[in-house]
Every structure is written in C-alpha cells, then in structure tokens.
Design goal:
The structure is a homotetramer.
Chain A lengths: L2 H37 L6 H8 L3 H7 L3 H18 L13 H18 L1 H11 L4 H27 L8 H22 L7 H14 L9
Helix pairs in contact in A: 1-2, 1-6, 4-7, 5-9, 7-8
The first copy, chain A, binds a DNA duplex through helix 1 and helix 3.
Chain lengths: 218, 218, 218, 218
DNA sequence: TATGAATGAGGGTTCATTCAT
DNA sequence: TATGAATGAACCCTCATTCAT
C-alpha cells in the first residue's frame, strides 16, 4: 500500500470517526431539543436527555461540557438561523422597496421559527433569566434586531417613506408584535402549523398602516 | 373598665396584632421581590429571602407555605393590578371613543409596570416555565387581555372605525408591541424611569396609523 | 382584718391558684393522652397537643419541660397504677391460695388497662425505643412484674402446687400472654369495651391449668 | 471471538454487574440493620447508615427510595422469614400430631428470631407506630399468625384433643407468650445466645399442658 | 469511546423550644 | 400566668458531574 493510500485510509478513518461523532452530537442535540421543549430547562434533568437520546450518562459529557453548555449551543444555533434570515437594508435605487425588505424579514423570522418550532419554544419559554451567558446572548440578539430595525426606520423616515416617529420605541413595538405572534402560535397553540403567509401579511399590514380605517385625506 | 372599653381594648389588640402580621408579610414580600428580581427565581434560595428580610428561617414559613407559594402570590398581585387597569370597552354614545379607551389601557399597563418595576421584571424574566400553576396563571392573564383586545377590535371593525383585519392576529400584535416596550424599559434598561406619556403615545400612534407616511390617496 | 385572717386569705389564694394550676396540668395531660394515643408519639407534634388542650404554645412549657417530659409523666402514672394493682404474694395460711392471688393480679392489670385504654395504647404502641429514660422505666416495670411472677412461681413450685419448670421463662410467658391480650383488645380492636371477667378467666385457665401439677381428680 | 463466546461474555458482564449491585444492596442493608438496631428508627439518620456502609449520600438513594423504604424492606424480609416457618396445619392421619406442628412453629419462630437478632430487635422495639404502611404490615402479620393459631386450636378442640376454650383469646395468649420470650431474650438481654431448644420446650410445655384435655392419671 | 455507578454539594421544609409582650 | 410569634438546628432528598472499568 502506498503511503498516499495509507494516508487517505487514515484520513478516511478519521473522517468516518468524525462523522460518527457528529451524528452522535446531532442525536443528543435532537433529544435535548425535544426534552427542553417539552419540559422546560429547569424541569429537564440530564437524565431525561440521555434517556431520550438512548445513551449513557457519561457519554453525554463526552459531547457536551454541561447541561448549560448544550442549551447554549441550541440557543446559538437558533439565533444564528434567525439572524441569517435578516438581510441588511438596501437603499440603492435598484433594490426592492424598504417595506418589501421588512416584509421579507418578517417572513423569514416566521419561517425560521415555524421550522424550528421546538427550539423556538424553548427560547420563548424560558431562555431569559437562566444565567448570565444566556441572558447576554439573547440581549445581543435582541439588540441586533432592534438596531437593524431602528436603522431601517430612520432611513425610511429620512427618505420620506415613513412618518416621523421615535424610532427606538417603534422598533421595539415591531419586534414585540412579531415575537408575540410567534409565541402564541408556537408555544400557546401547541405548535399547530399556521398559515405563514397570511400571518406575515397581517403583521405587515398592521405595522405599515395600523388599525384604523384608511384616512382618505388624513 | 366598662365592658365596651374592654372589648375595644381587645379589638385594639387584635387589630394591632393583625397589623403587625400584615407588616411582617409585606416586609417578607418586599424582600422576596428584591431577591427574585435581582437573582431570578431559580437562583434565589429561601436563605436569600430571609437574609434580605432579616428574619429567621422558620419565620418565613409562618407567613408563606413555600418558596413557590410566595412567588405565586407576587405574581397574582401583579396580574391583578394589570387586570384592574383594563376596563371593558364601552361603545355607548356617551362613552369616549374606542381608541381613547385603548389608549387608557395602554397607559394603565405602562404605569402599573413602571410602579411595580421589580415585580414586572421577575414575571417577564422567568415566570414562564416555572411550574404548571404559574404557567396557567400567566396563560389565563394573556388570554384575558387577548380576548378583550380582540373584542374591542371587532367592535371597532363592525362600527366602521377600524379597517378589516384578522382580529386574532392583530390583537396578538398589539399585546406584543406593548409587552416588548415594557420589557425593554424595565428589564433591559435596568428600570430607569421613562416618559410614560411619550411612550404610550408612540405605541398608540404606531398601533393606530402604523409606520407609513399618511397615504393621501391610499 | 386580723393577721390570721389575712394569712388564711393568702393561703386560700395560694390554694386556689394551686388548684387552678393542677386543673390546667390535668387538662393538658388529658389532651396529650388523647393525641399520643391517636397518632403515636413521633407523629404527635406539640402543636397537636396544645390545639387539643385549647392552650397557647408557651403555656405548655409552663407546665411541662418538654414533649418528652409530658410523655414520661404519663408513662409513670400508668405504670404506677399497674404496679399498685399487683400485690405481693402472701403465702401465709390465712391468705387466699396463690393462684387466687395471681388471678387477682391478672384481673387488676386488665381493669387498669381497660380504664386507661388510651394511655395503655400509647405504651404498647411505641413507648419502647423512644429514648433511654423511657426504655429504662419500661424495663424496670417489666423486671418488677417478672420478678414478682417468678418468685410466685418458685413459691408455688417449692410448695408442690406447681409442676417443676424454668420459672424465668414461664414468668415471661405469662407476662406475654397477658400483654398480648391487652394489646389486641386495646390497640387492635380500637378500644372497644371487652368482657374483662371472661377474658381474665380464659387467661387464667390458660395459664393455670398449664402450670399446675397434674390434676388427678380435677 | 465467536458470537456464542461474545454472548456469554456479555452475560457474564451483566451477571457480574448484577452481583455487584446485589452485594452493594446487601452491604447497605447490613449497615441499616446495625444502625437501626443500635439507635432505633427515629434516632437513625440516613447519614448514620451511609457512614456505617461507607458510601456516599447519593449512593444510598441509588439503591433505596428513602429511609422509610429501606426499613420497610428489612421488615418485609423478616416477616417473610417468620411466615415461611409457619406451615399450615395438616390434620390428615399421616401427618404429625397437631401439637407437634405447633412445636415446630414455635421452634421456627425462635430460630428465625435468633438468627435475625438485630432485625427482630428493631421490629420489637419500634416498628409499631412508625407509619401507616409499617403498621399495616405488622398488623397483617399478627393477624396471619393469629388466624393460623386459632384455626389450629379449633381443629384440636373439635377433634377432642384440646379442652373447650375461647380460641380467639387463647390464640392471642400463645402469640404473646412466644413474643415476650423473644423480646426478653433478644432485646432485653442484649442478644446473648440462648438455648433455643430448652426455651421452645418450656414454652410448649407451658402452652400445651394448659390446653390439653385434663389428664386423668398424668 | 462508552458506560453507569458513585459522588456530595446544595436547598427546602419541619418542629421543639424560647422570649418579648 | 398566658400568649403566640420567632427562632434555628436538624435532616431528608435531588441531581449535575466525575471516574473507574
């Protein structure tokens, strides 16, 4: 056997081992998602996760440093997915209108949440207040969305597309309206599938024109 | 000493004892609010509360059945205050306009939250997922507000004051927008005082007319 | 008022105060008997006793040093009554036959037990193993009865009235047979009244016929 | 390694693990017997048992649900041993005489007690009054023995072997006589070994001679 | 790597007793 | 003397993490 062949054999072995390891990690992560989602962080014991994953106690700690660590990883994964669905606002002439971009963002958030229902449920249920690191991550995520929204709003205002407003407060309102809809659909209604498009349109309509009857001459 | 005098003396003693007891309860409740607010429910040990209250271990259990019970009582107190600020919608001709009533409700929620900052912080931070009873109470509260809002919206629609909409979703949006503002002001910004009136107006404006510049020809 | 009169007045006051005190003690003792009897020593809390007696917590400790002390006093009372029912064996010609004396003793034990049902129940249920002092008192009582019986048996043997036997073991048997009957009647059967005479005769028949020299002509 | 070899290796591992577990359980049970026997149930803390067993706190709960559970198991073990020594009465012509069967039963009880001295001591000292489940178990045991004895007595009476009697009371007497002898030998005399055969014969002599039909020429 | 028995810090609750009124 | 609020030592049990196999 040539050295090259040997190397690649070794590589193959390593690769296969790594794949095995990744599969195992994924297995445990899935089990953790289910368990955390069903029982909440504090009521979930490591024993529950390993039972759901069908692994031994010690094995858990070969893949994750602690119960807190696996939760943190799940949280990061979800937030990353959310963030990746939020594109920066493009105000170049060739770009789609700002409100179209906002619509896309809302839709992305809804879709991400819907396809990560269990995970989202955990975060909404009780990620806040767990520990300082978790709190920080959520705060950062919130801040990031908030800043993005506020910037978008300010751009819209200065371009005359949006009415004058306290962009800090309104950005918070927008975030909250979306967040609450997610919460109600995922946590409260037991994760039943919902009409993403309809919901997104309602949210957008609500955000753009508010509640009142169109004022012809306002 | 006449019998009447004796009786009132006894009454006095009873009243004083009751007052003492109430004071004591209040003392412990205050200590609990501080501790829960600062450290969160799970990281708060009974030891922390009694240290903050300056009482002995056993004394705590003289006034509250358990750590969970005192939390539940705090939660109820807060939710009751919130609920009491939400009046039913009055659509009689002599009543103020529906949007005025909504404005009052928003203001009331903001004020209640601001004057119970620590308590509100606890509820927002981690009341959800604590235990089934707490979850139920919070859900009920949410549902109550949601129903009230949805009913108001439907009234507004049928009276032609509001545009047609999916009142279920929009009620959720409204709730979320207010909730998020509270969260940001109380939890994130460390409870710094904020301009309730300004915030309420912004929220209302946001809810009523949305984000967009007035559409002259819609 | 003469000095003598005053003194006797004072005496009267003292006497009346003492009477009051004794009544109070008796009240608490009765309450303790009921509670201990119903729930057992360990499951009885001081709170139960004072509730049954209708007195305040602190009052209890004005009359008894501790929960253990009141139990000890009850125990002593009962054992004293039992002991007083056991007369020394009289073998003088003018005395009634030994087996008559034994019969009386058994009857006395039964009667004492029946008229102190609750108290006896406590002692049978769990006086043993409570603490060293209680154990000692019970052991002493047991020893005393045992010795008395053994002596009686030896007398009977040496007088040719009883068959030869290991008086130590047999004394124990006799004690046990009586004890078990009490236990069954008082503890197990809920303290329903029982026919003392019938039971005593059966016990005696059981014991005596077994112990006596063969009855050639019965 | 052949599949069969592998399987047996696995079996071996499982068996060894089970054996280890059983040993461990037995170790803790022994420690518990010692501690309960020496200090009594209530004065025994779980800390005492684990110190005696040389294990950690948590380990205890790996093998037993609670302090109460381990006591219950000890109790059951002992009562089972006692019960297994009590054979049903056989009145067929080929069977040994009824009184021989009773003799065996007494002997068995004595032997079981003697070889489980510490355990028996606990049960005698304070099993009664511990909790409802324990009480029930002891009552059931008592009832079982009592019924067995009463049935035996009735058989003996109807066969003309025994004199007429109140079999309920007399069964109680017999039980008590044996019980008291056990108590005296195991609890009071510190568990010093005793001459089982001699004691059994004395008990039997005491019981049988008393129960039998009058012996005309004995 | 996989296992699961062992660990022990941690925390909630009870209840006999004390003491200021 | 009577009260009952206050005390705090005592003790059971859980569960995240470690480690020998």
């Amino acid at each position: 056997m040539s050295q090259t062949a040997m190397e690649s054999a070794v590589d193959g072995r390593i690769t296969r081992a790594q794949a095995r390891r990744e599969n195992r990690r994924a297995l445990i992560l899935r089990a953790a998602v289910e368990t955390f989602s069903a029982r909440g962080y504090h009521r979930t014991r490591v024993a529950d996760i390993i039972k759901a994953a069908g692994i031994a106690r010690g094995t858990f700690y070969l893949y994750f440093e602690s119960k807190n660590a696996i939760f943190l990883e799940l949280l990061e994964t979800l937030l990353d997915e959310f963030v990746s669905g939020v594109d920066g606002v493009d105000i170049s002439p060739s770009a789609s209108p700002v409100y179209e971009q906002l619509l896309d963002t809302v839709r992305n958030l809804l879709i991400t949440a819907a396809s990560n229902a269990a995970l989202t449920r955990i975060v909404f249920r009780e990620a806040v207040g767990l520990d300082d690191e978790v709190d920080q991550k959520l705060s950062d995520f919130d801040d990031r969305l908030h800043e993005y929204l506020q910037q978008s709003l300010e751009n819209g205002c200065s371009m005359g597309l949006l009415r004058p407003m306290d962009t800090g407060i309104i950005a918070t309102c927008i975030l909250g309206s979306v967040r609450q809809v997610l919460y109600r659909n995922l946590v409260r209604q037991g994760g039943l599938p919902f009409d993403v498009d309809h919901v997104a349109r309602e949210i957008l309509e609500y955000n753009c024109v508010g509640l009142m009857q169109a004022r012809s001459l306002a």
